[in-house]
User: Which sequence fits this backbone?
């Protein structure tokens, strides 16, 4: 894997580069009845509630070498959850910490609410979704990791992929701004990268079909991933493949493939 930072680069002042990773995953499930769809959404809401998502984002923060300043989280009715972490590259001493920051310790509801945004933050939002006409339910997770300084969100990429049942993955990575070295020369990126795939484990890449779209002059990188093989038992909700006829298996696989292809390419296929 390429180096994430160039430790030999001597900067004048703070590293002002902003590195942003947008990580979007879809989990696909076959839900034949309305009751199946209802139970699937309940299952997803339980498995990926705001508490577990907070744990995942806290792990991401630790992996990239940052510190949590503040956590805000919410579970929604009827479904979905959101979590936002304000983070810093280094530990912020208590005497300079803004009083509104909770350092990840959730306290009872306050009368007044103070919101603020800094250069470094991690957010997650979930979107369970279904439609009765195709018997398919989807669970989408959007995660954004934005950092400044020498820390990089790319370090957490493999962990994020492993944290969810990722059938379709869309990843965007961009480096913004510039920083100056001691001689005054501008640097618009501080690490080597040809593709986001450079930072994904080989064993993970082997399981997916991948497409890259990169704009190197602007330090913009985009990768799409689609799981190659369908193990039907992983897509059946409270059912087993052994219970199905051959025709039924073929029908379900066709529907799953169609859903995944439409999401992967961002198009609606002709019926």
Assistant:
């Amino acid at each position: 894997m390429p180096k994430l930072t160039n430790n030999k680069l001597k900067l004048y002042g703070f590293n002002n580069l902003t590195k942003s990773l947008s990580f979007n995953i879809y989990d696909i499930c076959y839900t034949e009845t309305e009751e199946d769809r209802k139970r699937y959404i309940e299952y997803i809401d339980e498995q990926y509630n705001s508490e577990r998502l907070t744990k995942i984002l806290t792990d991401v923060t630790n992996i990239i070498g940052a510190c949590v300043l503040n956590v805000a989280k919410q579970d929604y009715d009827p479904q979905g959850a959101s979590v936002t972490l304000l983070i810093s590259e280094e530990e912020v001493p208590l005497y300079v910490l803004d009083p509104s920051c909770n350092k990840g310790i959730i306290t009872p509801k306050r009368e007044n609410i103070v919101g603020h945004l800094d250069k470094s933050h991690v957010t997650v939002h979930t979107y369970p979704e279904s439609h009765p006409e195709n018997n398919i339910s989807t669970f989408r997770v959007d995660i954004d990791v934005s950092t400044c300084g020498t820390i990089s969100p790319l370090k957490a990429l493999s962990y994020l992929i492993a944290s969810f049942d990722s059938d379709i993955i869309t990843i965007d990575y961009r480096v913004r701004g510039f920083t100056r070295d001691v001689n005054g020369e501008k640097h618009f990126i501080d690490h080597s990268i040809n593709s986001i795939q450079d930072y994904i484990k080989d064993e993970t890449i082997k399981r997916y079909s991948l497409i890259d779209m990169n704009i190197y002059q602007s330090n913009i990188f985009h990768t799409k991933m689609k799981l190659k093989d369908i193990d039907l038992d992983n897509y059946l909700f409270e059912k087993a493949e052994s219970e199905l006829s051959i025709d039924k298996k073929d029908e379900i696989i066709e529907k799953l493939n169609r859903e995944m292809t439409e999401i992967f390419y961002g198009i609606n296929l002709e019926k």
The chain is about 20% helix and 30% strand. The radius of gyration is 21 Å. Helices lie at 34-47, 50-63, 157-163, 202-205, 246-265.
